[in-house]
Amino acid sequence: MLVLMNPKWNGQFSCFxxxxxxxxxTNDHSRTIVQVLDLEIGGGExxxxxxxxxxxxxxxxxxxxxxxxxxxxxxxxxxxxxxxxSPYSFQGMGVEGLKLLSKAREATGLxxxxxxxxxxxxxxxxxxxxxxxxxxxxxxxxxxxxALGQCGRxxxxxxxxxxxxxxxxxxxxxxxxxxxxxxxxCERGIRTFETATRNTLDIAAVPVLxxxxxxxxxxxxxxxxxxxxxxxxxARAAVVVGADGLIxxxxxNPDKAMSDGEQSLTFVEFRQMMDDLDPxxxxxxxxxxxxxxxxxxxxxx
Length: 301
Ligand code: PEP
Ligand code: MN
Fold this sequence. Notes:
By secondary structure, this protein is of the alpha/beta class. Helices cover 36% and strands 13% of the residues. The protein has helices spanning 7-13, 58-70, 95-108, 122-128, 142-148, 165-177, 205-212, 221-225, 231-240, 267-290, and strands at residues 34-36, 39-41, 47-51, 75-77, 111-115, 131-134, 155-158, 183-187, 217-219, 245-249. The radius of gyration is 18 Å and the shape is globular.
């Protein structure tokens, strides 16, 4: 993908020296590749993470893990600690949920990504998870971000509900400065005046971030859309703009899900989505491998 560096961006982002690309880098050799078990995120492979919003039971998680692995996902998602908008909603299974996630990893070989909401939970979650997810509501929880600097696991940093790219990269810089360079950025939609979708997917954020930062960038079409019918087309858009992967909600019976059922795909829908992505991934492949992204720095506005 060809993206010209806007000279304004140098001033805006270069202060985040651990996560921003240097102005004089003219090739793609400076990308961060995050290693997770045998996987590389931000390298050549488009990595799909999928699973339920929340871990609800052993059978729900195992069935989902097997279905998403069979359809080509490489990482299992599932919240054991849930940041719910309402205090009356299901708050997650806690450590029992973490144990089920590691059981699912043993059964399927999928790596695990799960959310951490406070610095007190970092150690216990790091025992079970392969990737620590920072949710949209926690993007500016600096005590948490600093604690994640020392957790020994990669961090999936979701964009804050109303965060600019600059604010988001600042949070990534905090994690990196605290000792952890393995940060994956996740665009999950932002709050705008639009109400037809749950959030507004800022698709331009992907090529901008891939230009100004060396970190991997993935897209969460589920929380952006809020409805399952839009998830596959937003996933396709993510591939086309050069994202490094996706995180998608999938549930054995979305109508009965304890959280985010409206935006969760059934197993059949998930497989269909994965099949539909293939030709778009194929189109991206030559440009990813043969043509390094061109950065043009300086010049007129
Ligand atoms: C989630 O991944 O289920 C979640 C709560 O996401 P977000 O933080 O993007 O709302
Ligand atoms: Mn969710």
